[in-house]
Amino acid sequence: MSRDRSHQPAQAVPGPDPEPQSEPQPSEGGARPRSPSAAPPPEVAAPDGAAADATEALPFGRPGRPLGRSPFVFGFTAALGVLTAWLLVQALTATASILVLIVVSLFLAVGLDPAVRWLQRHGLPRWAAIAAVFAAVIAFFAGFGMAVVPALSQQAGQFAEQLPGYVEQLQNNSQVRELDQRFGLLERLQTYLTSGDLGRQVFGGLLGAAGVVVGAVFSTLTVLILTLYFLAALRSITTTGYRLVPRSRRARVRLLGDEILNRVGGYVGGNLIISAIAGVTTFFFLWVMGVPYALALAIIVAVTDLIPLVGAGIGAAVATLAALSVSVPVAVGTLVFFVVYQQIENYLIAPKVMRSSVDVPATATIVAALVGGALLGIVGALLAIPVAAAVQLIATEVALPRQERH
């Protein structure tokens, strides 16, 4: 059995023969006394040599004890952390609108990706499929503008032409004349019209409306451009995101992430199909009933139908008010049509279209739509349901099995 080399005696270095010395006598216990001139063992001298080498490696000496426990360092670190958090909050607040546009663009890109993949399966290269889908999106926005903007401008012109007649009808009304005799309404109205306040308010209102229109156009163009870039780079974005996950968990995260993207894409595609069906059905009904601007109203109904919970009611209200300009029976018939159609859409069309995309309980859908609408308005309501579906998938596949194991 071999001995540990650390307990073996050090070999003597060859040199001149030492002078003979008398051997010390053993003590009473039998142990031989140690010579004062004997060299210390190597294990005792090694730490001193290592410390000397470490000191020589550091030209400015050995560092002292760290200052981690100093109250000054702790306070400075805490203050720096609070300042960093405050700056991050300010940056997020300043860029909130841009971040919303980025999220909407990414959401649309994920929703349009199934259509791109469908075209790829039918023989088109990816760039051609992206170009075809994006051309369809641009055509929809162009058709919406061409159908709605002329109708709104024509209605505004007709209202301006008929405004004197409305004023004359008010003057001939007995109740208005009585109120004018009591409170002098017509005199006050005439004074207000002849003063400069009306012009300033109208001019400011026009500038405000122009600013809203310019902002809407800028936001729309930004969303379209970002959607195109995200749609073209969606594979690289997802691959880079998966590479940020540790390798031991990357396969499972990839499976869950792909399933979430498929559900979001299925939700967006299914919602677009349902809205298209609603728009086409509304157009034919309003066209048969003789309601003016049937195409513009049908597009408005299709766009508002994308909004969960309240979107269908908004579109129905707009179309019913437009039908009221024809006659009261036509307006009543329009209202009945929308009530019947909503039942058909909720119980026949939507379940078949959304069968394989998003399966979220009705209570979770309502709660998610309300919370999303309170946080981000219409955009939040649109994003709430797929986010709820993603949370439900993660809870079902990750959180609940982990709780069962414990």
From TrEMBL:
Is Membrane given among the entry's keywords?
Answer: yes
Report how it sits in the membrane: Multi-pass membrane protein
Q: Where is this region: Disordered?
A: 1-51
**Which sequence ranges are marked TM in the entry?**
72-89, 95-115, 127-149, 202-234, 264-287, 293-314, 321-344, 364-395
What are the GO BP annotations of this UniProt entry? transmembrane transport
**Record-level GO cellular component terms:** plasma membrane
InterPro entries registered for this protein in UniProt: AI-2E-like
Q: Where is the composition biased (Low complexity)?
A: 24-37
| Keywords annotated in UniProt | Cell membrane, Membrane, Transmembrane, Transmembrane helix, Transport
Pfam families for the chain: AI-2E_transport (PF01594)
- Where does this one sit in the cell? Cell membrane
Q: Which family does it belong to?
A: Belongs to the autoinducer-2 exporter (AI-2E) (TC 2.A.86) family.
Q: Please identify the protein, giving its name as recorded.
A: Predicted PurR-regulated permease PerM
